[in-house]
Amino acid sequence: MAAAIDQSQYRNVWVYIEVGEEGPRNVGLELLGEGRKLADAMGQKLAGVIIGEKVAGLAKEVFAAGADQVYLVEAPELAHYSTDGYTAVFTDLIKQYQPSVILIGATNDGRDLGPRIACRIGTGLTADCTGLGIDEPTGLVAWTRPAFGGNLMATILCREHRPQMGTVRPSVFKRPVPDYSRTGEIIHVPSTVQAEDIRTKLINIVKVCTASCNLEEAEIIVSGGRGMCKPENFVLIEELANVLGGAVGASRAAVDAGWKPPMHQVGQTGKTVGPKIYFACGISGAIQHLAGMSSSDVIIAINKDADAPIFKRADYGIVGDVLEVLPLLSEEFRKIKPKAC
């Protein structure tokens, strides 16, 4: 039987800051807002973990989002995400500094990194969380995630092991309002990873996903469902998205039918999004889809069925044939868009 760890030696809340081409990805900043709440409730510090090459300048964004500290690991070998390199670096950080809680975005990279770290450290990991809190009787983090296909919500505690770890879906939480007057402590940690430690080599980057399917970062999303009737009609969705400078989404039914690739899917088994404006076009409003987009600031529904469940969650609704309504919307937005620019 493994010896019990001294949990009192583990302190502070860490957030992994995923880095994109233009700086910190939204999910890391979103998690700093929630991490701040957890850290305050636990009476501990909040830290961001930044790994990469020439990324020290991102610390100001992390402090502005609520962090007290930044753990910074920079090396040429870490310029791009790699399973071997980032897992080794993060594992070393945990062993050295012993955080109590680690939050990681449930992105492609985060879903790869989180479980590997947890396995090496010997702790648990709650995947794809949609809620965070503190369990009052124990003081532990309460990780909430969908179970049984989204029909139930399970709350999970990690009682015996440290750190408490979880991946959290992007866009579940809103980004905190940045306060650029905040500063903090930057802890420079040297990387021990060598080029030969990384078994994969980056040969080239081929962009198969343009801005039209960058759902997690989009401020406007136009999504289509079964009501679009056939894949050719998605050109109407794409047209409105282009006019508005938004991204193209799809319901599970549309993706399962092969009308759009899985990278466009919004919902419980797709991507969780939280844009400023979400157009639900020909989408009835199944609970699995609502779970993926209900945090949108404004929801606009278009459906010929006046009793469709989507209208109960929509801020604005248009009852009509989506194939007739979409061209009219695109035409009207084209008229007013130049005036707004």
Automatic annotation (TrEMBL):
The answer on whether this UniProt entry bears the keyword Flavoprotein reads: yes
SUPFAM superfamilies attached to this UniProt entry:
Adenine nucleotide alpha hydrolases-like, DHS-like NAD/FAD-binding domain
Pfam families named among the record's database cross-references: ETF, ETF_alpha
Question: What are the alphabetically sorted keywords of the record?
Answer: FAD, Flavoprotein
The family database entries (SMART domains) matched by this protein are listed as:
ETF
Q: Which cofactor does it need?
A: FAD
Q: How is the cofactor bound?
A: Binds 1 FAD per dimer.
Q: Which residues bind FAD?
A: 226, 251-252, 265-269, 282-289, 303
InterPro entries on file: DHS-like_NAD/FAD-binding_dom, ETF_a/b_N, ETF_a/FixB, ETF_alpha_N, ETF_asu_C, Rossmann-like_a/b/a_fold
Residues annotated as domain Electron transfer flavoprotein alpha/beta-subunit N-terminal: 13-202
Gene3D superfamilies in the record: HUPs, TPP-binding domain
Q: Which GO terms describe its biological process?
A: fatty acid beta-oxidation using acyl-CoA dehydrogenase
One GO term in the molecular function aspect is: electron transfer activity
Q: Which family does it belong to?
A: Belongs to the ETF alpha-subunit/FixB family.
Name of protein:
Electron transfer flavoprotein alpha subunit apoprotein
Per the UniProt record, the source organism is: Dendrosporobacter quercicolus
